[in-house]
Amino acid sequence: NDSFPISFNVLGIAIDFFNSFIIMNMMGITVNLMSMFGLIIVLGMLVDDGIIVAENAYRYMEQGTAPRLAAIKGTEEVIKPVTTAVLTTIAAFSPLLFMSGIIGKFVKIIPTVVIIALLASLVEALVILPCHLADFVKPKHDSAGKTIGLSRDIPWFKKLINFYTRLVNKAIQHRYKVFIVITLILALSGFLAFRVIKFVFVPKAGIEYFFIRAEASIGTPLSKTHDLIVPVEEIVAQIPEEELDSFTTSVGKIAEDHNDPFAGQASHLAQITVYLTPEQSRDRTVDEIVAGLREKTKDIKGFTDLRFDTPNTGPPVGRPVEVKIRGENFQTLDRIAGEYMDCLATIEGVSDITWDHKPGKEEICVKVDDRKTAIAGLSVAQIARTIRTVFEGNVATKIKPVKAEEETDVTVMFPKEFSKDINVFENILIRNKSGRLIPLKNVAQIQKVPGTTTIHHLDGKRVVTVSANIDTNKTTSLKVHKTLSKKFKDLSLRYMGYSVKYGGEQEETVDSMKSLLKAFLYAFLFIYLILSYTFKSIIQPFIIMLAIPFGLIGVVVAFLLHGQPFSFLALMGVVGLIGIVVNDAIVLVDFINKLRLEGLNRHDSIVKAGQMRLRPVILTTITTCGGLSTVAYGIGGRDPFLVPMALSICWGLAFATVLTLIVIPCIYSIIDDLALKLTHHSSMIRTPKIENGEQ
Length: 695
Prior knowledge:
Shape: elongated
Helix content: 55-70%
Strand content: 15-25%
Mean pLDDT: 80
Structural class: alpha+beta
Number of strands: 17
């Protein structure tokens, strides 16, 4: 009702952001998508501690306490829970700083920005805000000296307090039933999370361009490749205007960008880059558009491979399906690759199956006979040097004309016209150790063999990679790799010396999930240690941390309602949610403990603490969810890559707040019941029985 506390909180946010930007600049952090998202996450949390301090001080002002004294008492009363709340949030985000892999480097900036801003907000809430409250907030008084215009006198707020009081009284009365119901809801949420909702490492949302890559037969001239790609261009041009922005065609080159390490350049290659209109302005997603084009282009002749590739919306994690086959013999590697490609072709939702060991131009192979070479007194190195000299030449001597300042090399080699005829190898002679000339044809065979475009290695061994795209509406990367692992579990027995490694999105998913699980466990441990130290108890931290699964219920509901799959960013939002959802429970339990120390019984202290904390709990939740809703629902701009994390925190916090206000009092009462029973049982054991006047 009084605008001064609100104004000071807004001013506090400005101060926090100013300090945060200064520290970010000192640490070399730029303003980019990830750092701005970190600031958006923390935007709602920045006012949480300020709201708790301002509301508690204003509560004393409503009771008639002078502003200066109210600011001091109100701040002193909540220093411990506010500091604990900030530290638990920092503890939740801190493990994300140490995540490994490309994903860890990609998201590291988010927890960094969050921690910087939270520390700045803590200083502002405990030092600067109380000074402003003491100097500028002036409650109004009537002629009798009674404070007027209070928020607690507003009719709707009175109704809210009365409704909450009735609800929490009824919940405590049936606390065991409430506990059973919430346990069943948690079990159902777990089932839905693991069995119903799909997991896609990085969802393909917000993609506004894709590639059509075509390969003709080796040696196809540029003009022929151009003619072959024209029908594909005509089909692309038929995409509706509201979906197609433009497209470009490159003949003779395939590359995602200038830094693409897997770029190809040859006359038989062609690529069409299709640029779409923004996702918000079209009805079909990029996967639906690609599926339509794939159906229309399947009958086009002349290409040995025609595939569609979409870029990653997040960090570079490779294609959805990547099977890396390691070994020595290319014929065996190709055979195994063929088995994998045949298997992938039978899995629904898998498309654009290809491999990276494709035949190149024909090559001339000089196969040396080791026995004959040894008898002739030659070595493989001598043969190789002689053949190189024939075709590339070798400096035999140097001459220096009389009036010249520099020497001129005299290079000896076969005439150029001879190098175009394979019969030239019949005339090559090699000098052995004794000075005799040995014909090359006596010690080696000349063969024409298919060449290879590239030779890749992994851990010192040759590797052939089979890759494919997937339709996330029909399957996921995890399911496909699970099917392949089961199908080829005996591969190492059938092909001795050959092994398979699943890379791409699968590899990053496994590594990142392991790292994220560690972050979750460390965050859980750090929060428990902080709460144990603050409350001097090993039981009450568990009561407070039960707010965490309440938030998970909201996360599951959010992704079911929005029809979105779980992703890595969504799970990272869950880790951050751990530290946020306990904040309300910390302050609530702290007030219950204080009221009980003042002499109130358990029931009255629980109800009164809930009444006292209802206003700040609602305000802190609204501010945090309000800040994140702009990202979750694209208010003012939308980036689909960040939507899952925003949805996780926003919906998880909303559910956790409601359940915290109702369920935490019930669990507190249940734990207290158990403690009383144990205490009573223990005292009964220790009390000696007296029978017939004897002990």
